[in-house]
Automatic annotation (TrEMBL):
Lineage: Bacteria, Pseudomonadati, Pseudomonadota, Betaproteobacteria, Neisseriales
Protein name (database record): LysR family transcriptional regulator
Residue intervals of the HTH lysR-type domain: 1-59
Annotated PANTHER family: HTH-TYPE TRANSCRIPTIONAL REGULATOR, LYSR FAMILY TRANSCRIPTIONAL REGULATOR
Keywords, comma-separated and alphabetical: DNA-binding, Transcription, Transcription regulation
Gene3D superfamilies for the chain: 3.40.190.290, Winged helix-like DNA-binding domain superfamily/Winged helix DNA-binding domain
Organism field: Vitreoscilla massiliensis
Family: Belongs to the LysR transcriptional regulatory family.
Top-level taxon in the UniProt lineage: Bacteria
Length: 297
């Protein structure tokens, strides 16, 4: 008999003021109930009951012990309710990911997952900065680029090309950019978690080029819209450019330079008892991201 069962027996004896009644209610030998109470008294070095042939009453210390035992058993009941929630696939998932990946890929398809798990809440921390999985108590983080996976499980999804684009209005004003003639061209500067610079950097597979800028933004939505407005050259993942290429709002430029490629990775904590809904969400997210990002590449 474990300690929790002994505490339950002790509380029942205290409430019924009888070892015999407690044993009868639980269909146990009276000796089992007596032993359970004696084991608690021995472990905690306290007399819990005054015993007479007619009556069983709590001692002063026994009353305090009873109050604490009821509190512990009540908390245990709450924990068991949590266990039931997990068993019935109720819970929350918190995910950190880039803003446009949230708005353009995950949110439009999230109802697919919710049809399978209608009782699971999904919290999206869509931030263009560096989401810290452990500090922010997230269940997972989607990253573009290099990752540090200390104490985490890194699940590679795909390798994403980052190409260079310009709006037709920009090309009409400044002409088609050529590697040998980048003077007179402008970039849109994107400042997130890095030091301010007087020049913007265009990165390719094996080289970088510095261009001046006249617009500096701090989130991916503004960066894309600055490019669409013809304010400069931009570099975004190929999957994010597809709709704008199809509509003619963007054109690929500097195609003679091999594009930079970055890794797309999901980071999760190494938790032994991960609920089934969490495992299924990670699998669903992997398939979704791979479908959109690899097909576009």
């Amino acid at each position: 008999m474990d300690k929790i069962e002994r505490l339950k027996l002790f509380c029942l004896v205290a409430e019924k003021q009888s070892f015999a009644q407690a044993a009868k209610l639980l269909n146990l030998p009276r000796s089992n109930v007596t032993y359970a109470v004696q084991a608690l008294e021995k472990e905690y070095e306290v007399l819990l009951f005054y015993r007479t042939t007619r009556q069983v009453t709590l001692t002063h210390d026994g009353q305090g012990f009873y109050d604490e035992a009821k509190l512990v058993l009540g908390q245990l009941k709450e924990l068991n309710r949590f266990k039931a929630h997990v068993r019935h696939q109720e819970g929350k998932i918190s995910l950190g990911l880039p803003n446009r990946m949230a708005t353009q890929i995950v949110l439009p398809h999230l109802s697919e997952f919710q049809q399978r798990y209608p009782q699971v809440k999904v919290l999206l921390n869509s931030d263009d900065g560096y989401s810290n999985l452990l500090e922010q108590q997230l269940d997972g983080v989607v990253r573009l680029g290099a990752v540090q996976a200390d104490y985490l499980i890194a699940k590679p999804i795909a390798t994403i090309p980052i190409a260079t684009y310009a709006a037709p209005s920009y090309l009409a004003r400044y002409g088609q950019p050529q590697l040998s003639q980048l003077d007179g061209h402008w970039a849109v500067e994107y400042l997130v978690d890095k030091a301010h610079s007087d020049l913007s950097t265009l990165a390719f597979a094996n080289q970088t080029h510095k261009l001046p800028y006249r617009v500096l933004v701090q989130d991916t939505e503004s960066y894309l819209n600055a490019g669409l407005a013809g304010l400069g050259l931009i570099q975004i993942p190929v999957f994010d450019a597809q709709a704008y290429l199809a509509s003619g709002q963007l054109q690929t430029v500097l195609t003679d330079l091999p594009p930079l490629t970055v890794a797309l990775t999901i980071l999760i904590t190494d938790r032994k008892y991960r609920p089934q809904y969490m495992q299924d969400f990670i699998a669903w997210l992997e398939d979704l991201l791979r479908q959109y990002c690899v097909s576009a590449a």
